[in-house]
Amino acid sequence: MKKFGYVTLAAVMALGSIGLGGLGNTAYANEDLRSKIADVQSERGENQELARQKESEVADLKQEMETLSNEINKLEKEEADTADKISSKEDEIAEVEAHIEKLKEEIKELEERIAERDELLKDRAKNMYQSGGEVNYLEVILGAKDFGDLLDRMNALSTIANQDKSILDAHIQDHEDLEAAKTEVEEELNKLEGHLADLETLKADLEKQRAEKDSKRGDLQSKEETLEAELGEIENEDEILAQQEAAFESELAAWEEEQKRLAEEKKRQEEEEKKRQEEAAKAQAEQAAANQESTTQSSSNASSSNSNTSSNSNTSSGSSSSSKSSQPQVKNETTSSEAPQKSTSGFVRPTTGSVTSTYGTRWGKMHHGIDFGKNGRTGDVPIIAAKEGTVSSAGWMNGYGNTVIITHVVDGRTVTTLYGHMERIDVSAGQKVSQSQQIGLMGNTGQSYGAHLHFEVHEGNWNGAKSNSVNPLNYVSR
After folding, report:
1. Which one-letter DSSP state was computed for residue 429?
2. Which of 69, 115, 429, 456 has a beta carbon 3.0–4.6 Å from 369's, enabling a disulfide?
3. What distance in Å separates the CA atoms of residue 231 and residue 251, rounded to the nearest whole number?
């Protein structure tokens, strides 16, 4: 009996030690998983705090952008005023140049008249010299044949005298006009030089204003792009952390369910073992009692023997049953992981022309789409919907210029396509479009350097961080 007690105690202690070890491992694994979840949640909290800080920076940047925008508007107004001044100055220069040309024509005419009159005066002087330098008026009068001839001769003399005086007066006036015209030309030329100097100054001011405006716009765009990129990275990281958190929680739930099943299995095995030990102890007690009775009751030996045989058989049967039941029951579980179905894209090329830029890093930053070039073609190049869907946005977008965004549903999944830098938009937001329907024309609007189509594909919704972007060549042909 003592031996049986020791055996029983040892078995119970062994089971107890196994149970405690299992509980220890359970607690450790449970704590480890919860620690991982807590770490992820902590990282998400830090990430969200960083996002809030960035949002605060964005708010500050918007204020700075507004200030810079006001400065740019002021510079644009100054630029416009300077351009107006340049235009006015160019008009003034044109007027002065026209006046100078007119004066030059007048000078030319005066010089020609003066030259002709010089010849006439030279002839008159020559005739006077040949006639002794005087006109004998008395001879002319006395030589008249009659009174009428006398009047004619007197009128002729008067005409000659007046003509000579007029010629001299006109000659003097032309010389004075010539000097005045030349003086005025000099003054106009000096004025022209001043206007030209002012024009150069105004043009220099205009270039300076444009350079300052472009610099401010460049700084503003650089800051905006940097913050947008940082916010995009934060959003993408938060998405990954959220997925990790969900995965850990799923793993924890599955693990706890498994631990519950194992605990129930262990409890069942302990109950079976306890029952087996009780049956074995009972059999041993019955055997001991039978042995004591055999010494005084010889007539019951055969009965006792049969009883012992039956008891041993039961014990053996019980042991076998117990041993069989004590084997760990392995539960066959079949888990089927259904691979995502990969169907043909069903998308068509959104335009004609070669691919001039692919998806990936370009000029030190991510290029989230592919570019189709106009390749020197003239005329309109149509852009079509790559697949049927609903236009979610149609209008101007910063950087993209005229842009259309279309939402498609493919095998129950949301896929979004974006078409940027369009010259013209032919659809509107909320409109249903069919595959290959024209949605606009290829252009060069927004931040673009030459006519082309910028085409993006996003598996899910489009967002500013472009975190859902994928290589469009997975959907359309090159």
Report:
1. T
2. 456
3. 30
